[in-house]
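Please go through this chain and its backbone structure tokens and walk me through the local backbone shapes. Keep your notes short.
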Amino acid sequence: MSFRPLDPTKYPQLLNEKVSTVSALFADLQLPKPEVYPSPAEHYRLRAEFRIWHEGDSFFYAMFDPAEPRVPVRIDHFPTASRTICELMEPLRQALGEQLVLSKRLYQIDFLSTLSGDTLVTLIYHRRLDDEWQAAAQTVAAKFNIQIIGRSKKQKLVLGRDYVLEQLPVDGQHYAYHQYEGGFTQPNGEVNAKMVSWAKARCGQNPHTDLLELYCGNGNFTIPLASHFRRVLATEISKTSVKAAHENFAMNAVHNAVMLRMSSEELTSALNKERSFRRLADVDLDSYAIDTVFVDPPRAGLDEASRAFIARFPRIVYISCNPETLHRDLEILTKSHAAKDFALFDQFPYTHHMECGVFLIKKGVI
């Protein structure tokens, strides 16, 4: 089978090979030599999802090899996941197995953890959950000091909270985040902290100018970068992420950031004065003195209008989860901007995926 266990001893070699491959992709753009930020070789992933495979009266965690998608691969040890998840997996399996009301028609278990140790477990069933299930699950939640969510078709029961609390350490400071079940969060916490630190260093101190951030998620970058600027204008389309961002701004006493629930394309259109939006009725866009744009788009990269729009600004900090679409966007952006820094962040070790960071300054601007 092509599904193989993780081998930490091979990580340095695999990372070097991946760095060479990604660097070769950008060779035609003559970017600076990349700074490489490795991941821990194991226990790096703060999220994990497992199917539950039942055999008689027992069950086990399972994953499926794409080469043999019908054959479950039993998972008893999963060093890819955070230590918090790894240490919880077997005791939780045993506790659920001791009560039929908790194991009956249990289909999947999702784990969400943080660097600070907070953990949320979602139990997904092929049956409706009742008061008996809730009482039993409450006991398990208390035993392990975790949050539990029960899900079935058209049903969601939250025992405690439906989010975890992260305390992200960056440059000697901790930033607090609510990270909601089902919402996007960076999966590799330690590499995420390195990405935030890198972005902060590129932004510098700008007390008289403003930052525009597209695709801001739950404020992962917005909050640490807010202290570098007079104000931040941020946009995000996900309702869950917008809710989390507002809560995270409050927890971190960030008062100079405005969050808009709209797509980057819509905000670009508004800033270009092509369209007006009711959501912007109380926002004076003309009052912003934007000189830096931060973007962290989805794998599709920037759309054509957004790419052309951000090219107007003196400085661009671009975080990308897809080197191919980043290359496409840089082919255009490097016509107006010079790439001053290039970084590779290994968010997903042992895979071909690589997170990239590029800092661009408009040509002719010192």
